[in-house]
Model the fold of this input.
Amino acid sequence: KKMGLHTVALTGAIGGKLKSAVDYCICAPSNETPRIQECHILIGHIMSELVEQSIFHEQQSCISRS
Done:
């Protein structure tokens, strides 16, 4: 945050102390660690896909036109 970056945290059900320290807190709706970890894995994959789409979308559009 001190560097002007947006901060994101993945947490369990209520976010704990970390929730107030970040800009965006994504809380997995469970108190069971394995379920929370499964949610975090899914969220990580979704975030990766969104980043890839934003970076490579223009390249894919050019390829599909040729």
About this structure: The chain has one domain: 8-65. The two ends are 43 Å apart (CA to CA). DSSP finds one helix and two strands in the chain. The longest strand covers residues 8-11.
